[in-house]
Write a structure and sequence with these properties.
Blueprint (H helix, E strand, L loop, with lengths): L11 H8 L3 H8 L11 H14 L5 H8 L8
Helix pairs in contact: 1-2, 1-3, 2-3
């Protein structure tokens, strides 16, 4: 079958490791619209955002809904 395996999706842990910050600092920097960037320096936030951009990080809304218990979907 010789096909390529699917590309591994970039995770929050990957971004944190690349930016050399904790996972919670990376989460805070990437979710500032929720007021989570309290205590994160501008320099550290920029490192996280740059790492996320370079790695192609995209928030996984399905995983987020499993943790929060909210999916933002409307059922009929």
């Amino acid at each position: 079958m010789g096909g390529k395996s699917p590309a591994k999706r970039c995770t929050l842990t990957d971004v944190a490791r690349a930016a050399q910050v904790s996972r919670s600092a990376a989460f805070a920097a990437l979710n500032e619209e929720h007021g989570t960037n309290i205590g994160i320096s501008q320099e550290r936030r920029q490192r996280v955002l740059e790492a996320a951009r370079k790695l192609g990080y995209a928030r996984n809304d399905l995983a987020r809904s499993l943790v929060s218990g909210k999916s933002k979907m409307v059922g009929i």
